[in-house]
Specification:
Number of domains: 4
Mean pLDDT: 83
Distance between the termini: 104 Å
CATH architecture of the largest domain: 6 Propeller
Strand order of the largest sheet: 20-39-38-41-42
Structural class: alpha+beta
Helix content: 25-40%
């Protein structure tokens, strides 16, 4: 049976109908739900929530309003969808871990980074945040178009005026039909600077220029972003609007309350659920995919995130961290796909194009605002002209109004009803009115006439008239400015630039996410570590830690020092070295082995912290003891000098120590009952100095030593008297004076010229007059008067002083008090370093070693502490200030 076509029935192709209907649905989802508008960076539901709160009075500075009331208003007037969908959007706009600059100020439980759900809308309260009000600024000045709501009973803005570039500030994410958007958040200050740059140089500004001010995404959860070498990945993503960047969690290493080594996670990649991350780590430990973790707990509080991962005694910090980054969301990827609605259609945008479209939007807003203000100003000018004329002829105006039989008649007369307009008067009008009309002198417009009739009698006072005149003159100036603004588009651009500067000053804050210019495949943890002058200490019980050098304030010679490390019973500080956080540290042990660490692998702690067992960082054998820590910046130097307790010495090419495994390598083939006690960097031109505990020193040429392999033994360097032992080896590359420090804190500088050049293997000459008051020699160091000296005692007392404050006297003396050492304490170690300005005004000074052939631009790469015991003995110097700590 066939159906004849009528006006109500028309045949269609089912394929065509499905295609058309699907495309209509897809475009509805894309435009009305999933993608933000490039101009205000909002999706329709977000825009409707802000408009509903603005219209309902829930603005910044007003009392909080129940979220349920806001959701009800928005759903009833503008967004006819489920209340939960509206509330979920409102919640996200209030979460400071979801939006870089939250648009809603919430009170109550709005969820957490653990994925906890928010409280029901009847329990929470909300209002607009201050920065959200900037998005609706001037909306009442015809700056944007309004459109009917879904039932035509209300009007809503089709777009917000938005002074802030919200699309880039808060980013956006959404999945539409056949497309998605994923735009990262950015820092307001950087985006404001980029917009200013584009406005000032619109034709010449390139993406590379913009990337000089925009470092990259700035996520609300902090973390670290890897953007490729020279920002290659970031440049590709921002240029095409599509790409990837890798995000890293931030970790530190601490000693836990149980004395274990602990990895502390303080920042996570954007959108990582903390609770799920902890569950994943626990699952990996349970399945034995990660070994070495003893305990896992969440210590996060209102002060910030803190995930504690305690390691077993045999656990390797670096190995566990590598596995965590490999198997968990502590390292994740953010896919950038900058899709937004442009002129009603979805478009993929590069960074520069997104900024240009926002600038175009602001140009249109400011132009419309200016036209609106100009129209209002002209209307007011017209009224003021009428008022001024009326005041000038006030008697005639009053007479006319008094003679009129009604307000409408007075209105007509003030508009100039005269002989030509007599026919407008009723036929039965009194003769007086008809006579007045014949000689009517007025020609006011209707608007002016109504203003005159509404004018209060007090406006007739002289001061009031002057006020009207002043207002009129100011209005004339304002009209001229508005007309000039419309006639000069560049002035509108400069207004946009000034707005950006104002917003930056008002809402700008420091960057949260650290940008690292490294490729994920080539990424090294050291890329995250800033260069920092540091002090590394090691105790007798092999607890090691690293502290910023700045924590130790310089004191006068003879000071008591400050507490540098807590010591337990039978524990004491043994070694101290000053280095850069990126230096290589070579650990030489009494058994003639060498181990390697990067300085930043040593946990960065406060002075009062105990530190971590060094066995958590290097695989020392049972009973093995570190005797020397040698910082090395590069392995391009000539030699390492190695000396033993019994006076043996050898020189070995530094390059043989470049590759050292975690379990160490042989550095010196020791004789029985001998120990390796000191190491020093040297060149071919150096002279070698060995110092013994009984106050003798020998100086000889390095050429007296043959080149020895790493695994070989040494030769006789110094002949020792019974009971004496070598405390250090020095080279003349490091300075002009030999500094000697005794166990009781006495010290002196002696010119190297006072030490005769001898042959290797002799007994040497006197370098310190040993007495019961001074104690034995604890350490030696070649120094320069421009250097600073850092000393530490076995009890962990640290003092920092100038080398120049230590007296320069002869060899056969006992020296002066350098540090006042407490009863039962003794000097443990020293380090000398040079403070050098980096040439930039206002920059801090950096520490570096001097002499020894060091690169003058290298910081601290060869500072060597040679196991010297640092005292506190005093001769009155230092005073109360020195005695009270730093």
């Amino acid at each position: 049976m066939s159906i004849e076509p009528t006006s109500q029935v028309r045949p269609v192709e089912i394929e065509q109908e499905m295609r058309t209907s699907y495309l209509d649905y897809a475009m509805s989802v894309i435009v009305s739900r999933a993608l933000p508008d490039v101009r205000d960076g909002l999706k329709p539901v977000q825009r409707r929530i802000l408009w509903g709160m603005y219209e309902g009075g829930a603005r910044a500075g007003t009392p909080y309003r129940k979220s349920a009331a806001t959701v009800g208003d928005v759903m009833g007037k503008y967004h006819p969808h489920g209340d939960q969908a509206v509330y979920d959007t409102l919640v996200r706009m209030a979460q400071d871990f979801s939006l870089r600059y939250p648009l809603i100020d919430g009170q109550g439980n709005f969820g957490s980074v653990d994925g906890d759900p928010p409280a029901a809308m009847r329990y929470t309260e909300a209002r607009m945040s201050p920065i959200a009000e900037e998005m609706l600024a001037d909306i009442d000045q015809n700056t944007v178009d309004f459109e009917p709501n879904y039932d035509g009973r209300h009007e809503q803005p089709s777009i917000l005026p938005s002074r802030i570039p919200n699309l880039l500030l808060n980013g956006s994410s959404g999945i539409a039909v056949g497309m998605a958007t994923s735009i990262p958040p950015h820092n307001l200050g950087e985006i404001a600077d980029a917009i200013s740059m584009l406005i000032e140089n619109p034709e010449t500004t390139t993406l590379d220029d913009l990337l000089t001010v925009i470092q990259g995404p700035d996520f609300p959860t902090y973390g670290i972003a890897l953007v490729g070498k020279d920002k290659a990945q970031l440049r590709a993503a921002y240029g095409e609007g599509h790409g990837r960047i890798t995000m890293h969690a931030r970790t530190t290493v601490e000693e836990s309350s149980k004395g274990r080594t602990a990895i502390i996670v303080t920042e996570l990649p954007y959108q990582v659920n903390k609770a799920q991350l902890i569950e994943k780590i626990a699952e990996l430990v349970r399945d034995r995919k990660i070994e070495g973790i003893a305990d896992l707990r969440d210590e996060s509080d209102r002060n910030g995130m803190r995930i504690v991962i305690e390691l077993k005694k045999e656990g390797s910090v670096q190995q566990v961290k590598n596995l965590l980054f490999k198997h968990t969301a502590m390292r994740s990827t953010f896919a950038i796909n900058m899709m937004a609605i442009v002129d009603g259609a979805p478009r993929r945008l590069g960074l520069k194009r997104a900024l240009e479209l926002f600038i175009d939007h602001r140009r249109n807003v400011i132009r419309r605002r200016t036209e609106y203000q100009l129209e209002k100003a002209r209307e007011r000018e017209h009224i003021l002209q009428g008022l001024l004329r009326a005041i000038d002829m006030i008697d005639a105006v009053i007479a006319t109004i008094r003679a009129a039989e009604s307000a409408q008649a007075a209105l007509d007369l003030l508009q100039g009803v005269g002989l030509v307009q007599l026919e407008r008067l009723p036929a039965n009008s009194p003769a007086a009115i008809r006579s007045l009309a014949q000689r009517n002198p007025f020609t006011f417009t209707e608007v002016q006439a109504r203003a005159i009739l509404d004018m209060q009698l007090r406006r007739l006072a002289a001061l009031e008239r002057q006020a009207i005149l002043n207002e009129y003159e100011e209005l004339i100036k304002k009209i001229a400015e508005l007309e000039d603004l419309l006639a000069n588009p560049r002035k509108i651009d400069f207004l946009i630039r000034d707005d950006m500067k104002e917003l930056k000053k008002k809402y700008g804050d420091p960057r949260r996410t650290e940008i690292v210019e490294a490729d994920p495949e080539d990424f090294r943890e050291e890329d995250l570590v800033p260069h920092q002058d540091s002090v590394v200490t090691l105790s007798i019980r092999n607890y090691i830690k690293r502290m910023p050098l700045d924590e130790f304030r310089r004191q006068s010679r003879g000071g008591r020092g400050s507490r540098g490390a807590p010591t337990r019973e039978e524990d004491a500080v043994m070694k101290l070295v000053v280095c850069d956080s990126h230096d290589n540290l070579l650990f030489f042990t009494d058994r003639g082995k060498v181990y390697h660490l990067r300085a930043f692998d040593v946990p960065d702690t406060k002075k009062q912290a105990k530190g971590l067992p060094i066995v958590n960082l290097i695989d020392l054998e049972p009973g093995e003891r570190v005797t020397t820590i040698l910082p090395v910046r590069s392995y391009d130097r000539d030699f390492i000098l190695l000396a033993t307790r019994n006076g043996e010495i050898k020189k070995t090419r530094l390059s043989e120590f470049e590759e050292v495994r975690r379990n160490g390598k042989i550095a010196f083939n020791l004789d029985e009952n001998d120990q390796l006690i000191a190491a020093r960097l040297a060149t071919n031109e150096t002279h070698v100095i060995l110092v013994s505990s009984d106050g003798l020193a020998i100086r000889f040429k390095i050429d007296d030593l043959r080149d020895a392999s790493r695994a070989s033994g040494g030769v006789r360097g110094m002949k020792l008297r019974p009971g004496a032992y070598v405390v250090g080896v020095e080279t003349t590359d490091d300075g002009s004076d030999l500094l000697i420090i005794s166990e009781r804190g006495f010290g002196k500088r002696t010119s190297i010229d006072e030490y005769p050049l001898q042959g290797r293997g002799g007994q040497g000459v006197k370098t310190l007059n040993i007495t019961e008051k001074t104690g034995n020699v604890a350490a030696c160091r070649m120094v320069d008067p421009r250097q600073d000296l850092l000393l530490v005692t076995r009890d962990g007392i640290v003092v920092r002083t100038r080398v120049s404050e230590i007296s320069r006297i002869g060899r056969n003396t006992q020296g002066v008090t350098v540090m006042r050492v407490g009863e039962g304490d003794a000097v443990a170690s020293i380090a000398a370093f040079m403070m050098e300005d980096d040439g930039q005004a206002g920059s801090r000074r950096r520490a570096r070693p001097s002499g020894n052939g060091a690169d003058p631009d290298a910081a601290l790469n060869e500072t060597l502490p040679l196991g010297l015991d640092v005292d506190d003995a005093g001769d009155g110097h230092g005073g109360d200030e020195a005695a009270n700590g730093d």
